[in-house]
Amino acid sequence: MGYIEIEGMEFYAYHGHYKEEQIVGNRFLINLKIETDCSKAAESDNINDAVNYQTAYKIIKAEMKKKSNLLENIAGRILDSLYENMENVKLITIKVSKMNPPMGGKINNVSVTMTK
């Protein structure tokens, strides 16, 4: 077994509970961790034997374009889409962070982490 991780994917999107968030938008960071069997790719050195992390990025990018009210919804949609469109995936953990959330004070980010 092994892990493929993509860290610090940044998107500008229009997610949020408040109407203003869906108009103005905000920065979001995504971290992804995929558990998979890396042994065949390690031996063959062939991308067809590996979980293609460029495909994972494209799936996440497409999901980030769809508006959501909650971070939980974003994370759940991404997890479902990754499983539907990728093979040889054992376990996926995703962390979705909203940067500088409008909560009335200085906050770096708020995050939701989900595993499927």
Write structural notes for this entry.
This protein is α+β, with helices and mostly antiparallel strands and 116 residues long. 34% of the residues lie in helices and 34% in strands. It has helices at residues 19-24, 39-44, 53-64, 71-85; strands at 2-13, 26-36, 91-99, 109-115. α3 crosses α4.
Compact overview of the structure:
The chain is α+β, with helices and mostly antiparallel strands.
Helix and strand arrangement:
Blueprint: E1 2-13, H1 19-24, E2 26-36, H2 39-44, H3 53-64, H4 71-85, E3 91-99, E4 109-115
Antiparallel strand pairs: 1-2, 2-3, 3-4
Helix content: 25-40%
Largest sheet descriptor: 4 strands, antiparallel
CATH class: Alpha Beta
What do the pLDDT scores average to?
A: 96
How many E-type strands?
A: 4
What fraction of the residues are assigned to beta strands by DSSP?
Answer: 25-35%
Q: How many separate helices?
A: 4
Oligomer: single chain
Give the count of structural domains: 1
| Rg over C-alpha atoms, rounded to the nearest angstrom | 16 Å
Keywords for this structure?
116 residues, alpha+beta, GTP Cyclohydrolase I, domain 2, four-stranded antiparallel beta sheet, 4 strands
